[in-house]
User: Fold these one by one.
Assistant:
Number 1:
Amino acid sequence: MTKVAVIGLGYVGLSLSVFLGTKADVVGIDSNSEKIKSLRKGVPYFYEQDLGLYLKRSMQNGLIFSQEITKESLDRDFVFVTVGTPIDKKGKIDLSNIKKVAQIIAKNLKSVRTRPSIIIKSTVIPGTTLDVVKPILEKNGLKEGIHFDLLTNPEFLKEGSAIKDTIYPHVTVIGGSSSYAVKKLAKFYASIYSKNHKIIQTNNVTAEAIKYAANSFLAARISLINSLANICQRLPGTNVDKVAEVIGMDPRIGTQFLKAGPGYGGSCFPKDLQALISFANSIGYNPVLLDAIKSTNSDQVFAVMNLIKTGLDRIQGKKIAILGLSFKENTDDIRESVSIKLIKLLLKQKCKISVHDPKAIENTRNVFGDKLSYHKTTQDVLKDSDCAVVMTPWEEYKKLGRKDFQIMKHPLVIDTRRIVRVDDEKINYIGLGVGT
Ligand code: UGA
C-alpha cells in the first residue's frame, strides 16, 4: 500500500488525509495537541460536510494522527506539506510554518532510507519551493533527486465542499524538476481518481503561479460583479442577477462566480491577493488591477452599510438582526467574514446587534463575547428588530418569507445575496444590486 504523510491538518491537510486514508496508509501530523486529541477521538475540530464520515472510514482503514514529524513519518512514498501560509503585518507572505516544517524534515531525513517525495501543497509565492524550501532540505548534505524529491502540488478545494472537491478535483497540477518524481505522483493520483481526470505536469514555479492566478482571477470576478451590482443598485428596474445570468450565457464569461454580495471573505482570497500584490511589487511590477480587486472588495461592506442607512432614518440605537456569520454557506469559518466587519461597524454606530448562523455562532462568540445577542432560530433573531441583514446564503434563509419578517418591529430586509422572496408592501425589501 502507498505510504503517505500529511503535515498540517487544516482544511486542506485534513480533507486530504481523510480521503487518502481510504486508499493508502496515511499518518496525519499537526503540532497542535488539541487538534490531534480531537482527531484521535474521531471528532473533526471544524465543521465540514462529510468530514466526520470520512474521518471514521479512514481511521477504520488505519489512518493515524501524530503530533510529531519523525523519521518513521518521513519513511514514506509521499510527504504532503499543507501548513498555513498567512500574511505578515506588512502584507507579505509569512513562510515561517513552511520553513519550520522544512527544518524538521531536513533533520529527520538523514536517517530515512527511502527517497520520499516532499510535496508542497500549501499556497506559496512563486519561487518558494526551489528558493526557500530546497536549500533548507539540502542543508545537511542531502540532495534533491538523490535522497528526496521536491514537488509543488497546489490545492483548489473550497471550504463548504472541501471533501467533495478533494475527491473530485477539476484538475491536478504537479510541478517538479525530476520527471521521475512528477510521474510517480501523477501515477498515484491516476490510481485514485477517475480515468478522465486531468493531471498537468509542469515545473515548480509554474505550479505555484497557477494557484495565485486562479485565486486572483476568481476574486476579480467577484469584485467586478460587485461593482456592477453597485451600479445596478442606482439603476431603477435592473437586477444584477439578471445581468449575471445573461452575460454568463457567453461561454467566454461562463456562469460561475458571478454572484454579487457583501464581498469575498475567508482564509484564501484576501490573503492570497495581498501576498501576490506584495510579491509583484517586490519584483518590480505595480499590479494596479490586483490593488483595485482588493480595494473594491474591502469597500463592499460600506455598500451594505449604505443600504442599511437608506432603509433606516437613524441608525444609532437600532436593533439589527444579522443572518449569517460565516464567510460563506456550509462552513463555520468566520475568518475575514464580511459579517464580522459589518458587525464591528454597526457596533461603532451604537446599534444593538442580534445574530444567527446555523454553524458559526460559537466562533463569533469568541470574537464578540457579550457584545451581541446570539440566537438559535431565525424567528428569535428577527423578533422585534428594526432591520434584518441577510449576509450568508445559507439554504435555510432561502425559505424565509413574508410571515417570518412580519414579527420584526420595523420590517426592513437588506438582502446582500438576493435569496429571500418577500412580496408584501408592508415589508421594505432592499436587495443588493437591485435598482429601485
Ligand atoms: C477559494 C477558491 O474558490 C478555491 O478554489 C481555493 O482552493 C481556495 O480559495 C484556497 O485558496 O484555499 P474558498 O475561499 O474556500 O475557496 O471559498 P469560495 O467558494 O471561493 O468563496 C470565497 C468568497 O467569495 C466567499 O466569501 C463567497 O461568499 C464569495 N463569493 C463566491 C461571492 O461573493 N460570489 C461568488 O459568486 C462566489
Note: Residues 123, 155-159, 215, 218, 222, 257-259, 261, 264-266, 268-269, 327-328 surround uridine-5'-diphosphate-glucuronic acid (CB under 6 Å).
Number 2:
Amino acid sequence: MDSVTSLDLLPGWPFARLRIAEDGRLLQLPAFAPADFETHAPAYPPAGNGWILEPALRVIHANGDTSGDLRVVEAAQEGNLTTVVLRDPVYPFEVTLSFLAHPEYGIVEQWATIVHEEEGPVTLTHFASSFLTLFGDSFHLTQFHGDWGREATVAEEALGPGIKILDSKAGVRTNQFRLPGFLLSVDQPLDEEDGKVLAGTLAWPGNFQFLFEREPAGEGRRDRTMGVRTGMNPFGSEYRLRPEETFMTPRMVWCVGTQGAGEVSRRIHRWARTHVIREGDRVGPILLNNWEATYFNFDAPKLHSLFEKAADLGFETFLLDDGWFGRKYPRNDDTQGLGDWMPIQEKIGGTINDLALVANQCGVRFGIWVEPEMVNPKSELYEAHPDWVIVQRNRDYELRRHQLNLDLSNPEVEEYVFSVLDTILSESPNVDFVKWDCNRYVTQPGSFHLAPEDQSSLFIRYPRAILRVFQRLASKHPVVQLMLCSGGGGRVDYGSLAFAHEFWASDMTDPLHRVDIQWGYSYLYPARVVAAHVTRWGERPIKFGVDVALSGRFGVDLDLDQLSPEETETLRRGIETAKAIRDVVQLGDQYRLLRTESCSSVMFVSPDQERAIVFVYPVADSPATTLRLKGLLPEAEYDVREINGETGFAPERIRLGDDLLIPARPAFASLVLELEAI
Ligand code: GLA
C-alpha cells in the first residue's frame, strides 16, 4: 500500500478531504467541518458489515453473502485526478473511487468503478457515485421540480431527521419531473450571496437518486452531519455483474462555496462551458423553428416562404420540426409514422438535402427534428420489429403520445438508433443542426432482449447506450449542432450535454412562465444551453417575449407570414439585439438580481467585465424598485442605456455598489439595459 494517509482532493476548498485509517478504511472529513474535527465519516460505506445507515454500496456476492467490506490497497494522485482502490479483504471484489478536481471552479467530479473475480456474477443493488458527508447545524435543500410546462420550479425545505429522496424513476426522459441536481445550504436557508452551499448534479440521462440522511442524535451526541448519497437510482435496477465486466457509475459533480447560490451557479456555468458542453465557448445560432408556427401542417411552398422571410429578418438557422417523414404512414399528426425516417417527398419538395439547399440558397442554415428512440405502433418500423420496444411481454402495451420506447439495451436497436441520424446526416451534408426529441418515459420496464435475470439492468443499460449513440454521432458529424429536447426539458443532464450544444427548456413558451422556468434552470445551467423562443403563447406583447428569449439562446417559433408590420419590426430589432448581446448572455457570468411577485431581474456580465446586460421582467404591475448591480469592475464607471426598444428609461451612469432605480412599470413592460465601462 502507498504510504499516503491523507488526501486533499481540492486544496483550498472546505471539502473533499480523505483520510486512510490504520485499518485501511477510507474516511472523509465532513465538508465544512473545522479542520480539527475528529469524527471522520466513512467515504464509501458498504452495507452488511457494521454500517446500518443507507450505504454507498450493497453487493450480494456470488455465494449469496450480503456483506461488504472495503479497505484501501492503493491511493494515487496524478495532477488533478485522485484514485483510491479499495478491496474486500475476503472476496476478490474491488471498487476504485475516482475524483477529478477542478480547483479553479471549486468542483470535483466523482465516480466509482467496480470489478470482481468471484466464481459467478455478483448482484449490485446499491452503487453510489459518491457519498459525501457535510457538517452543520441545519441543512436546507433546494430542488428543481415540475411536470411538463412547469420545469425547473424552485422549492426549498429544511431537512429534519430521517431520509429525504429526490429521484427519477422514468427510465428515459428522466428530468420530466425533476432536474438531476440540487443545492444544499448549510446553517441557513439558501441565499443568493451568502452562506455555505453545496451544489451537486449527476451527469447521467438515466434514473438518478439523491438521498439525504441526517446522522441520528442521541444522549451525548448531536446530529451534526448529513450524509448525501448520489448516483443512479437503485430502484428496480439490481445489476448482475459478471466477473469479466467493469461497472462504472456516472459522474457526480460537486461544487462547494461559501458565498451563496449565485457564486456556485456561476462556477458551475463556467466549468460546464469550458469542460462539458459541446463547443460551450461558442454562442448558439439565432433560430427559427416551425413547430408552433405550423405544427404538422406545412408544405414546400410554405417552408420556402419561411426561409425567405427568415433570411430577410436576420435568422441564421431554420429548424424543420416534426412531420417531414413517413412512407406507408405519413406523419401528419402524432399518431403514426414515428420510426419511419424517410422524407415525405411530396410534402417537402424532395429529399431533406434538397430542402436544406433551398434554405441555404435563401441565406439560412438548415436543421431537422428527429426522435429516433421512439416508435408509433402504426409504423413500418414496428411492423418489422415488434420485439424492439420496451414493454412487459405479458401485458398490453401502454401508449404515451401514441408511442413506445425502443429498447436500447438491445445492441441491434442501439445500432439502429445511431444509424437513423447517421444516415440522414451522411446523405444530407447541408443539414447542420438537429433537435433530438424524446417524448415519453418508461412505464413497463421490460425487454425482449435481456435474459430474465438481467431485466432489471434495463434502467442502466439504456442510458449507457444513448450516451454511446450521442458520442458516436458527435464524433462522426462534428459540425452538426445538437439540441436536446424531451417534450420540453426532460433531458438536460451534463452526461448528454457533453455531446450537445443546448436543450429545449420547456414547451411552455408563454414568457410569463418562461421567466420562472429560465430562472430555475440558471441554478445549474448556463444561459448558453437554455433554448428560449418567442411564440404566441399567452398572447403577451411580442417585445416581452423577445426580451425573455434574449436571456437564453434566442430563437423564434412564429409563423412569419402572419406577423403584422409592427411585429415584424419588433422581431427584426430583437434579432439585431440578440446578435449584439449574445456573447455577454451566453458566455458571461449570470447574476440573479431580483425575484418578487411582480418583477424578476437577471444580469449578465462579460468575462472582461467591461459590458453587462440587465433584464427587468415585470410579470405584473410592478412598483418602483432598486437593483443592486453585481459583477462590475470596482473602479469603473458604466454608461447605462436601454436597448431593444425605447420604453422611456433615462440613460445614466453607475458604479459597482450603486443602486439602479427602476421606475414603476406596468405588467410585461420589460426592459433591457446595456452597461458599458467608460
Ligand atoms: C415535443 C417538443 C416540441 C415539438 C414536438 C413535435 O413536444 O417538445 O418542441 O418538437 O415534440 O412533435
Note: The chain has twelve helices and 38 strands.
